[in-house]
Fold:
Amino acid sequence: QVQLVESGGGLVQSGGSLRLSCAASGFSVSTYSMSWYRQGPGEERELVAIIFSEGRTEYADSVKGRFTISRDNAKNTMSLQMNSLKPEDTAVYYCKGFTAWGQGTQVTVSS
Structure:
């Protein structure tokens, strides 16, 4: 069964850091592109970062230089390190890979 499970969300002050993790089962994260999306209140879901199977990464302009996407092939997980967080980063964050979406994890940044 293809499944993704996120963890690591929470409440943090502006300027703080959080690390999100996404554990995959039913497929290998090294084989497919893996990505993080987010959806803020009243907003559409947007792509935050993607890591391609060959390791290349891309980021939304709004998070470049602050967020880092990575994966651990041995553990079959993907992560998103978020630094210098801003209130506008507040959203539900979802991981996506192969045919699956995670359930989402809330990130709230207070000013």
In short: DSSP finds no helices and eleven strands in the chain.
